[in-house]
Amino acid sequence: MTEGRDYREAARSFGGVAAEYERGRPGYPDGLFDALERLWGRGLRGARVLDVGAGTGIATRLLAARGAEVVAVEPSPGMAARFLASSPALPLVRGTGDDLPFHDGSADLVTYAQAFHWTYPEKSVPEAIRVLRPGGAVAAWWNVYDETVAWIRARDRRMAAALSDRYRGYGGIDHHAGHFAPAGLAVERTVLRWERRVPVDHVLTDLTSRSYLASLEPGERAPVLAAEREAMLAEFPDGIVVEPFALDLTVAVKPG
């Protein structure tokens, strides 16, 4: 888990912004799952998948749409309630990646969509290996804002200045992928670039769901969001924001 402030406390803040999380967070392009299947070497259809840190079910629903037999795993009561309201036909189990409530060798794939960094790898990696069947895989991915774009870098600087005690940048998985190879997994990685076009208010809803803002009291959050609204409208006068992402994917396969 990322060092610094108490990230378990930050993770607990998601329950209070579950509605904003579901409305604002980006989804994933079809190319993500094509790449996952290619790096894994098998298809998702019929695969038994544990989607760990499922949140409100954004990735879970897409995995199910690809034909996977997916079970969501989510520790937050608020996020789990939103998941069940949105996806009542999909199974959900309360739990964490550090202590998966599943039998040995019971899954083909363990996924972490925007979630692996909320685990302790010394616990979550052995747990994933334990529940995987031979030839199974762990897949971890993040939508990371593309910092080659000038306005993304400018927003990064604003957030760092406004939230110096809690903002740690947009992240990525460079410092996480190394946890899999020492465990005997064959690791592959790729980056997919894509973008979405959304109204300014949608971007602000997304920001509200980010841990560095979700963990603030509403009164503390409001001036930061107001400043971002002003900056976004200056950058995008028509009110439609083009958000660029570098989708970072790691797939680690257990020996067959």
Summarize the structure.
With 256 residues, the protein is α/β, with parallel strands linked by helices. It is 38% helix and 24% strand. It has a domain at 7-147 and 170-197 and 244-253: Rossmann fold, CATH 3.40.50.
Q: Care to describe what's here?
A:
With 256 residues, the chain is α/β, with parallel strands linked by helices. The protein has a domain at 7-147 and 170-197 and 244-253: Vaccinia Virus protein VP39 (Rossmann fold, 3-Layer(aba) Sandwich), CATH 3.40.50.150. Helix content is 38%, strand content 24%. It contains ten helices and seven strands. It has helices at 7-12, 18-24, 30-40, 58-65, 77-86, 121-131, 150-162, 200-208, 211-214, 218-235, and strands at 48-52, 69-73, 92-93, 107-113, 132-145, 186-199, 240-253. A seven-stranded mixed sheet has the order 3-2-1-4-5-7-6. The protein starts with 6 loop residues before the first helix and ends with a strand. The model is unreliable at 1-6 (pLDDT under 50).
Stated plainly, the CATH topology of the domain at 7-147 and 170-197 and 244-253 is called Rossmann fold
- The helix count comes to 10
CATH homologous superfamily heading of the domain at 7-147 and 170-197 and 244-253: Vaccinia Virus protein VP39
Tell me the β content: 15-25%
Low-confidence stretches: 1-6
Mind describing the biggest β-sheet?
Answer: 7 strands, mixed
CA radius of gyration is 18 Å
Strand order of the largest sheet: 3-2-1-4-5-7-6
Question: How confident is the prediction overall: mean pLDDT?
Answer: 90
Order of helices and strands: HHHEHEHEEHEHEHHHE
Kindly state the percentage of residues in helix: 25-40%
Task: List how many beta strands DSSP finds.
Answer: 7
CATH architectural type of the domain at 7-147 and 170-197 and 244-253: 3-Layer(aba) Sandwich
CATH class of the domain at 7-147 and 170-197 and 244-253: Alpha Beta
* SSE-based structural type: alpha/beta
What general outline do the C-alpha atoms trace?
Answer: globular
Span of the ends, CA to CA: 29 Å
